[in-house]
Amino acid sequence: QQQVKQSPQSLIVQKGGISIINCAYENTAFDYFPWYQQFPGKGPALLIAIRPDVSEKKEGRFTISFNKSAKQFSLHIMDSQPGDSATYFCAASGAYSGAGSYQLTFGKGTKLSVIP
Amino acid sequence: DTAVSQTPKYLVTQMGNDKSIKCEQNLGHDTMYWYKQDSKKFLKIMFSYNNKELIINETVPNRFSPKSPDKAHLNLHINSLELGDSAVYFCASSQSGRPYEQYFGPGTRLTVT
Fold first, then answer.
1. What is the C-alpha separation between A87 and A83, in angstroms, rounded?
2. Among A43, A51, B27, B95, which residue's Cβ finds the most Cβ atoms within 10 Å?
3. Helix (H, G, I), strand (E, B) or coil at A82
4. pLDDT digits over B5-34, tens only?
């Protein structure tokens, strides 16, 4: 079964610090690696995504680093703020599953708490 | 303007009952999904639906059935509810060509007693 392994399960960071969440995958057919952010009581929302031909993508304080040879990618949140406290999911897309959809395989999530 | 909406937000029911959750998207997307999120926050795909083609995750019990009256709606029917069905159910949608960009609804918290 295709898997995306995510760590850590939970993370506590001081305000202003850097939050780092790591993911690893096995299937080299994956061709898109999005990160989703979920606040309590809400649905997940796309945060940032990267293709494997790019080693880094930055949007504001959020950066994805991608290591194709190691089959790993990570999310860095710079200058972490209490408002960033949420559950973060990495995912991988690219395995066609029919019905016009390329199934998203999610990691198990990381609960980030940013303390003032 | 809500992109993906679900009703109801909360659903409390007894074992053995049959219930439905409705989902609507106004994004013009051609693919819709149902996910189940358990108490540990793990997101599990249940169904993908596009142009009347349905893909079912093989682990989903046949008590669960999606029904799509049109391209903007994908409802979830659950028969003979069990305690283990308690979870948050999310509807999502995406457009062909951008499958990694899924838009999720606010979720329906189902509690089976």
1. 12
2. A43
3. helix
4. 999 999 999 999 999 999 999 999 988 999
